[in-house]
Fold this sequence. Notes:
The chain has helices spanning about 5-10, 45, 55-70, 80-90, 105-120, 140-145, 150, 170-175, 200-210, 280-295, 300-320, 345-350, 375-390, and strands spanning about 25, 30-35, 40, 95-100, 125-130, 160-165, 180-185, 190, 195, 215-220, 245, 260, 325-330, 335-340, 355, 360, 365. By secondary structure, it is α/β, with parallel strands linked by helices. The strands form four sheets. The protein has a seven-stranded mixed beta sheet, with helices on both faces. The structure holds pyridoxal-5'-phosphate. Pyridoxal-5'-phosphate (PLP) binds near residues 103, 191 and 220.
Amino acid sequence: MSQTIEKGEQYVMHTYGRFPVVLDHGDGVYLYDENGKKYLDMYAGIAVNALGYNHPKLTEALQEQVGKMLHVSNYYYTKELVGAAQLLVENSIFDKVFFCNSGAEANEAALKLAKKYGKSKSENKTQVIAMKKSFHGRTHGALALTMQEKYQKSFQPLVPNIQAAEYNNIESVKALINENTCAVILEVIQGEGGIIPAEKAFLQEVEALCKANDALLMIDEVQTGIGRTGTLFAFEQYGIHPDVVSMAKGLGGGVPIGAMACTKEVDILVPGDHASTFGGNPLVTAAAQVVLKELTENGLLDHVQEVGAYLKEQLLALKEEFECVVDVRGIGLMQGVELTIPALDVEKKCIANGMLLVGAGEKVIRFVPPLIITKEHVDEAMSILRKALV
Ligand SMILES: *Cc1c(COP(=O)(O)O)cnc(C)c1O
């Protein structure tokens, strides 16, 4: 066994079941392990590495920033912080941005905003509705919104006043929502829950229920956002106008950054309400500007639409070919393939044959590759996947 793996077993806390591979470096959409073995990357560090590895513009911007300054706290402005916020605002329906360091933190910020909004209307307006099979992160607040027993059961009691509705079932939302609801939070495509897209009518009706009850509509775009589905945010394809959005994963192209954005009507947080020491520091916001410009100015969104459609077409062809493939779901470059066989077995075979994938539940394999992937890479992925399915 590799010495790195041996030492890893000894020193690193076992909060993950890791594959026995030591990754060393990447280039484009390929990763290389310590023995020089090459892998086609179809999971991008869980939907994070939007521009792949060693992208010339991202590398240059980061190198330049490293030589200038890494961090100054939020007591001062930097051009990088302001530039990233401006790009997000000018390319969305939102007016203000708060930066943090992860998806869970972005949802914590959203949850606090919702509580304050509710309390500004009435003392009892503190109920939040989340969806069964959701995933919003591992901190206490975000975990309380994550309605999956396997994640919650060892950590009860969590944050109170959070109720679970059924995803894509408007009656179950109707049954819970009332004047004491301050927010509804949901994903446009449930990611960890198994790549389950929302139905358009469901999201539109949830929006109407939120309006009728003066509750905030908060969309968790931590995985679906920043171009993953072919639009900057996935909700844009549903004709809805959320009050709050959270994002993270792809935003920094690999550096740790999260953000919450909201409209001016609900921009109610003031100094002292919420904060983050590292949040939006010049290193991570320099990276976010590169990613956002690639998407909004340099045609990457169109590219995602084109290659995403091609990926879906190829996966649907596999469904015809293999009995073990029962469903293909997703939008753009976020696609799930539901199998009758364990996803982990398929992932292991793919790793052996030089491709990295990630599961989403026990029977679903997930394709969330770097957004720069080409049709030729998709063809290569399909030929490796075919070997794992027979
Ligand atoms: C990954 C994810 C999170 C959590 O993000 P972290 O950066 O791991 O805290 C939250 N919501 C969704 C939808 C996610 O996919």
